[in-house]
Structure formats: C-alpha cells, structure tokens
Write a structure and sequence with these properties.
Blueprint: E1 3-7, H1 12-27, E2 31-36, H2 38-41, E3 49-52, H3 71-96, E4 100-104, H4 108-117, E5 121-125, H5 132-146, H6 152-171, H7 181-184, E6 189-192, H8 204-207, E7 210-211, E8 227-231, H9 240-253, E9 257-260, H10 267-270, E10 277-280, H11 285-289, E11 292-297, H12 301-309, E12 314-316, H13 321-332, E13 336-338, H14 346-358, H15 360-372, H16 379-395
Parallel strand pairs: 1-2, 1-4, 2-3, 4-5, 5-6, 6-7, 8-9, 8-11, 9-10, 11-12, 12-13
C-alpha cells in the first residue's frame, strides 16, 4: 500500500479525469489525498481523502479567464496560484508524508512542491502538451493569418520571468525557471489522458510518455440518432450573440436540437426560439451525445473525447489556442469541421452542418477507426498501472526513466 498526494485545480474536465484515476488507485488499497478548491473537493466521493486549498485572492479561477486572457497572462495566473499555495502545501507534505506526488499538468504548485520535498512526481495531462515546440509555430501561423504584430506578449513574458525569479529566490530554488513549463510541468513520468492522435509529434514531452485515453463512460449509442447538440463548455459560454446565431441556423434546419447555455446567461437573453430547439441550463452531456447526429462545441478535449466515444461528428468553433489546435486535429482526422469564431456566419455554420449530415458514414467510419485503437482496459486502470509501477521503480532506486509504451487494443 502506498500513499499518493494529488493536486488538481477548479476545472470540471480536469477534476473529472483525476477522480477516475484516484478512485481506481483507492480501490487497490492505496491511500489517496486529493487537493482542490473547496467547491471541487466537496464534490469528491469517499474513495479517497479530499482536502481544500486555502482561498487565494489572485490565481487560477475560471471566472477570471476571458477570451482576452493571453497565453502568458494565464501562465502568470498559474504562478500566482503556486505562490499563494506553496507554504500551505509544504506543511501538508510534512503532515501527510506521501510517497509520491501526482498533479495536473496545469498545477505548477504540484511540481514545485515535489521538487521542494524531493519526492517522485507524475504529471497527468488532460490535453496535449502546450510546449514551445507546439505553441510557437502556432502563434507564428496566427500572426501570418491576421497580420497583427504587437509587443504585449513580450511584456507579459518579462513580467512573468521576474515574478518567477522572485518566487524561486524566496523558496530557495537555485535553478532557473522555465516559463513555458507553467503549462506542461513535465516530470520523469507523464501520463496523457487523451488519445495519441490528438498529440503533436514535434513535442519531446509527449514522445516519452504514456497515452491511455480519456476516461469517459461508454454510452449506449442509439442506432438511429435524431438530434443536434450544442454546448460551448463551462468557461467561454457567455456569448449571447453566438448562441443566437447558432439557434437561428438550427431553426432553419428544422432538426430536433438541444442547446446547453450554462449558468452565465438566461434563457430570456436568447429570446424566442424555433419549436425544434430546446434550451437547457445543464444536461448530462455523455447521455445526450448518444443520441446526437452532430455536436457543436468549443473543442475542449473532454468534449472531443466524449464525442469520439459516442461516434458523434463535430463542428468546432474554437476560442483559445488550445481549442484552435484541437480543432485542426478534428479536421485532420476527418471527424468534424472547424469554423473560426472570427469568420463564423450563419451561412458557414449551415454549410458545415449540411455537409456532415450528407456524409455521416464518412465521419462515423473515421470516429470508429479512432475507437478501434483504444485499449480494452479502462484509462483509469492503465493510468493507475503506470503510477504504481513508476513508484515501485523509484522505491527500488531505479534511476532509469520509466519506459512507457502506448497501449493499443489487442486484436
């Protein structure tokens, strides 16, 4: 029996993925202590111990993230969280005495606490690695498309670098900070809760890691799907005009449609909708996807994998760089269509929906091809296997990096 300390952050998709792994580890007799904000730690079950982070005035909070939040401003938000939590977590490590630390790839504080306490650590990714090897080429492509060049990014980098240096000096770290690592927090052992097909070959982090797939419930997909489902996720879901445009197009199609608008806008903000369109605040996404012909989404990685599991083609309207890169993968894999939010019109959305409806077999075949590559073993089990074996290798003073393999379904 081993004791594992997990660090999450208040994001639904990350929390859900970590819970699946922690529950599996606990079922094997391990002790798992999970840290997140109070509202998320209270959502956990009794399979493991949940503890709340102390409240912090600045740092990661989805309410502080908008479509104008830059890449490095978000990285600074993660660093601010690490600064706020460091002393508390240092004391918690002393109190709990864990054998190993596992943290979300966004939980910078998890990596820094592991370094400070000299404990083996694992980084758990719920998306591809947003490293400089992936993001710099993307930013260059975007600049060439938009022809917009400014110095705000440089200013953000310089401010972030200074804040890093000040914090490292305070806690006694002698090594130089890597500002790109705010987003990836790579360790000697890295687990990706995504399909390998959504990664990027030019990223060295992913080249030495284990891909186990995203932990979704296997839906009972309907043979005859009858509706279109729309959800803009849990963060960038307050654009009333975007919802109105989508709903107008759905009205023209006259196909039964469910639109999940979330909690940031009211149904009255939308106004009158066509009889074939149903507005809901929240809905069980995995359940409704089992009956959906098409899923219109921002392109969050959890939503993409839930669509794959339910064999539902996608129309992706991305907002942030991660979603834009994921949308490119969706088109590359032939499982959907992307539309830039800056170029979105009723005509383009209608054309995309009609194209998919006319070629459902093509998209379904590509989705089934992805499913066929997944392991028969649940992602939570595969991830737990990696964690236990890695800790065993560390415990046996094996200094060689754990040799991870991508596990595919056996014929």
């Amino acid at each position: 029996m081993s004791k594992y300390m997990f660090f999450g952050l208040p994001l639904v998709s990350v929390h859900k993925a970590l819970v699946s792994v922690m529950s599996e580890l606990s079922s094997r007799g391990n002790i798992v202590v999970y840290y997140n904000t109070a509202d998320f730690s209270s959502k956990s079950n009794d399979a493991f111990i949940s503890k709340a982070y102390p409240s912090y005035a600045t740092g990661y909070d989805t309410s502080r993230i908008g479509n104008n939040t830059s890449f490095f401003a978000f990285a600074e938000m993660l660093l601010d969280t690490a600064v706020s939590l460091f002393d508390f977590l240092r004391n918690e490590v002393s109190l709990e005495k864990p054998d190993l630390i596992a943290h979300s790839h966004l939980a910078l504080w998890g990596k820094l606490i592991a370094i400070d306490s000299k404990l083996p650590a694992i980084s758990i990714y719920t998306t591809f690695s947003l490293s400089q090897h992936v993001m710099i080429p993307f930013f260059r492509r975007q600049q060439e498309k938009t022809k917009v060049y400014n110095n705000t990014g440089i200013e953000s980098v310089m401010r972030l670098q200074k804040k890093y240096q000040s914090f490292y000096k305070k806690v006694g770290f002698s090594f130089k900070p890597d500002i790109w690592d705010s987003y990836i927090n790579k360790e000697k052992c890295n687990i990706f809760l995504i399909l390998k097909e959504f990664s990027f070959e030019n990223d060295p982090v992913e080249g030495s890691s284990t891909f186990v797939g995203y932990p979704v419930n296997q839906p009972n997909s309907c043979k005859s799907k009858k509706l279109i489902y729309v959800s803009m996720g849990t963060i960038f879901n307050d654009d009333v005009d975007l919802f109105k445009l989508i709903i107008d197009v759905l009205g023209d199609l006259n196909i039964p449609s469910i639109v999940s608008i979330g909690s940031k806008i009211n149904k009255s903000d939308i106004g009158t909708v066509a009889p074939n369109v149903t507005l809901v605040d929240f809905i069980d996404q995995e359940s409704v996807l089992s009956n959906a012909m098409i899923f219109v989404t921002r392109g969050g990685m959890a939503s993409i994998h839930e669509a794959v599991a339910s064999v539902t083609p996608l129309v992706v309207i991305p907002e942030i760089p991660e979603q834009q890169l994921t949308a490119e993968k969706v088109e590359e894999l032939g499982i959907g269509i992307q539309i830039s939010v800056m170029q979105l019109t009723k005509g383009k959305l209608l054309n995309a929906l009609e194209l998919i409806l006319s070629n459902l077999d093509f998209y379904s075949n590509n989705l089934n091809a992805l499913i066929a590559k997944q392991s028969l073993i649940a992602p939570s089990e595969l991830a737990s296997n990696v964690i236990e074996r890695y800790y065993s290798s560390c415990n046996n003073h094996d200094n060689q990096q754990y040799n991870q393999q991508i596990i595919y379904k056996q014929e």
